[in-house]
Amino acid sequence: MSAHSDDRSGQVDVVLVKAGRTKIRYTGELLADDGTRLAVRAAWAGSGVRDFGFVRFEPGDVFTEHYWRDRWYAIKEVRSAAGTLKGWYCDIARPALLTRRELVVEDLDLDLWRSADGGDVRRLDEDEFAASGLGERDPEAAAAARSALDELESMARGGDFTALLL
């Protein structure tokens, strides 16, 4: 942790914005802030179980979330209540913004999943991204989002993915 983490430790509200509206808001513990990357730990904030078919998020799951002020993604390590690593859920998003005790992240619809053993890497929600109209409204943001997804997928398949989180 850096000097930043000492003066910014404590609780923070994570606000996930999608299409200009708050999708979800929850409280987490700010673990680190080095000025570029932030790490937050939070319990599963959804209501009940969310079964994707390849992973289930459920009450008791713990997410260690990594956000960057200079990258177009967030990586969320997912563990069961017993501490078993399920994998990493990655949101393609605009760079994070921390103001006071609020961490705001704009979700751009694209996602990536990497299982704990690295054997299952899958791109998600490309249809939602295409339907969002971001490519027409903000071509530069759309290009950055696609590039971020490609970068994450490459690292998840063969690069040093977990080194991003150190």
Verbal overview:
By secondary structure, the chain is of the alpha+beta class. It has four helices and eleven strands; from the N terminus they run αβββββββββββααα. The strands form two sheets. It has a seven-stranded mixed barrel with strand order 1-2-3-6-7-8-10. Strands 4-5 form a two-stranded antiparallel ribbon. β2 and β3 form a beta hairpin. The N and C termini lie close together (10 Å).
Assign a percent range to the helix content.
10-25%
Helices, by number, come to 4
Overall number of strands: 11
Radius of gyration: 15 Å
Strand order of the largest sheet: 1-2-3-6-7-8-10
Strand content: over 45%
Question: For the terminal residues, how far apart are their CA atoms?
Answer: 10 Å
Query: Quaternary status of these chains?
Result: single chain
| Average predicted confidence as pLDDT | 92
Q: Structural class of the secondary elements?
A: alpha+beta
Q: Note poorly predicted spans.
A: 1-7
Furnish the topology, listing elements before pairings.
Layout: H1 3-7, E1 10-18, E2 21-33, E3 37-43, E4 50-51, E5 56-57, E6 62-68, E7 73-79, E8 85-93, E9 97-99, E10 102-115, E11 121-124, H2 126-132, H3 134-137, H4 139-157
